[in-house]
Amino acid sequence: MEPLKISVYVIRDGVRGEAITNSEATARAFADEACADREMLYAFYLDSRNQLIEKRLEGLGTVDFAVVSPREIVKAALMLSASRVILVHNHPSGDPMPSAHDAAITNQIEKALDLFDMKLLDHVIVGARVNGRQRWLSITGKGPGGEF
């Protein structure tokens, strides 16, 4: 397993309805949920051309932890005939740095999807707004210009 690469980015004001083709578009599509007072993990289920099939709440938690099941992510992806999945969740503390649990669950879900020839494209963590801009981080290390 490669070492975890950490980079924090800031979202520019964007237009709704953009295709989900990179980590920044993922964070932008999650902007409404990012300010919640508890962790919320969503899965974006995509087809083979990265077009959104469904955005679904898969985990709800407390101020610092959300429960999510790799089994339920795989089950939903199979039921929706998704080829690819993107995970995104907020950190109510405002700090988008991943916890050990964030890294572990990302790895578990990636392995579970791989068993069914589906791909986890990214796991984005969205933090607090700073000077009017949303801070976010890609656990997979994809920056603003990194296309899926």
* Helix count from the secondary structure assignment: 3
Name the CATH superfamily classification of the domain at 8-14 and 35-61 and 68-132.
Answer: Cytidine Deaminase, domain 2
Biggest sheet: strands side by side, in what order?
1-6-5-4-2-3
Please bin the fraction of helical residues: 10-25%
Order of secondary-structure elements: EHEEHEHEE
Percent of sequence in beta strands: 25-35%
State the total count of DSSP E strands: 6
> Tell me, what's the shape?
globular
CATH topology name of the domain at 8-14 and 35-61 and 68-132, in short, is Cytidine Deaminase, domain 2
What's the CATH first level of the domain at 8-14 and 35-61 and 68-132?
Answer: Alpha Beta
CATH architecture of the domain at 8-14 and 35-61 and 68-132: 3-Layer(aba) Sandwich
Structural classification: alpha+beta
State the end-to-end CA separation: 20 Å
Rounded average pLDDT: 83
Name the poorly predicted regions: 1-18
Output the radius of gyration. Answer: 14 Å
Largest sheet: 6 strands, mixed
